[in-house]
Each structure stands twice: as structure tokens, then as C-alpha cells.
Amino acid sequence: MFTGIIEKVGVVKEVTVSGKNRIFWILSNLAEDLKPDQSISHNGVCLTVEEVIPPLHRVTAVEETLNKTTLGNWTPGTSINLERALQPNGRLDGHFVQGHVDATATCTEITSKEGSTEYTFAIDKAYQGLIIEKGSITVNGISLTTFNTSDNNFTVAIVPYTSEFTNMKMLTIGTKVNIEFDMIGKYLEKIILKQKNQK
């Protein structure tokens, strides 16, 4: 379980292919505090640390993960938002995040405001029921609040601190991002759909 509050930004140093999987070596100053078997959020994707050689750690993405996320596009030099799992006694400063990416979205507009930056994303209409005005959403592992929502668009705003300490500042028009919808919303949607089907 994660909170969507990014700890560090790492950099992909090496990518190798193993069958249908991809193996990534990630460089960060978080590595010295990591150990094998830990779960780490990488741009919102929960991956298991397999090996640590500070300042590097190694993770593997299987075919299913590559198909459902942006990890298949990672190359050496790609910046990655990193967050360690929530400790039981830790503060929940963002919202409950599982690290299970639901979909990808494409950045369609970036607007600079006085003191903030707004990013608009396009997403498949099939997910419109999971995006609500002023609701929680995870973009590349970052806990954010949606507004100006429509059938297939939503906007988020970030403050300068978030821009400085995450990879959001590197987004451009056309960039794809990993999206995880609010966990509570997903359960509610399933319950409602099940009740409708039983009538």
C-alpha cells in the first residue's frame, strides 16, 4: 500500500529483455535504504526489489505489466517517481494507493498559472465512472485531485514543490502516464454494477 506522496525521483540506467519480461536497473539515492523483496512504487507501478547494489536497484516487469502501463517505453535516462510502501504507523498524506495501474492517459494540454501548473489528460471513456470532480487519482504514482472532468478528460494542478520533486515537469503534450483510480471508487462501482445486473 502507498500514499501517492513521492519520496525520490530515480533514473533508469539499464534495460534488458528476458523472454517477455524487461529488467530495469534504477539509479537513486533511495537504493541504500532498500533490500530485496521490498515493494516499491515506480511511476505508480508496484514492483518488487530483486537486487540492490547502491546506488542501484533492480526490478522486473512481466508481460502483463508492460501491456497495461508505460513501462514498455522506459529507456536509459527515463525519470521515475519512487515511493516506498506505507508503514503501519505512517501518516496517510495522500490517499490509499495500491500500485496497481488501471489504465494509461495521454497529456493533451499544459497550462502555466500563477503559482501552479495545470495538466489535462485524455483517457478512454470506459473509465468515466471512476473519475469524479474533486476526486483522488494517481498520475505516475502521484496523488492528485481531479477537476474539469468530462467523459474522457480530466485536469490536475500541481504546485511548484511537486514539479520540483517529481517527474511531472518532464511531461510534454502527447506523453502517456500511468493512472490508478481511487480504490474506494472502484469497489463502489463494482457493487453498483453487480446490483444492477441482479435486477
What's the shape? globular
Assembly state of the chains shown = single chain
Strand order of the largest sheet: 4-3-7-1-2-6-5
The biggest beta sheet, please? 7 strands, antiparallel
Distance between the termini: 35 Å
Average pLDDT reading: 94
* Total DSSP E strands: 13
Structural class: mainly beta
CATH topology of the largest domain: Elongation Factor Tu (Ef-tu), domain 3
Topology:
Blueprint: E1 8-18, E2 21-27, E3 39-42, E4 45-48, E5 51-53, E6 56-61, H1 63-68, E7 79-84, E8 103-113, E9 116-122, E10 136-139, E11 142-145, E12 153-158, H2 160-165, E13 176-181, H3 183-198
Antiparallel strand pairs: 1-2, 1-7, 2-6, 3-4, 3-7, 5-6, 8-9, 8-13, 9-12, 10-11, 10-13
How would you describe this protein?
By secondary structure, the protein is mainly beta. The chain folds into two domains: about 10-85, Elongation Factor Tu (Ef-tu), domain 3 (Beta Barrel); about 105-199, Beta Barrel (Elongation Factor Tu (Ef-tu), domain 3). Helix content is about 15%, strand content about 40%. It contains three helices and 13 strands. The strands form two sheets. Strands 4-3-7-1-2-6-5 form a seven-stranded antiparallel beta sheet. The longest helix is centred in the C-terminal third of the chain and has 16 residues, at about 185-199. It is globular, with a radius of gyration of 17 Å. The termini are far apart. The mean pLDDT is about 95.
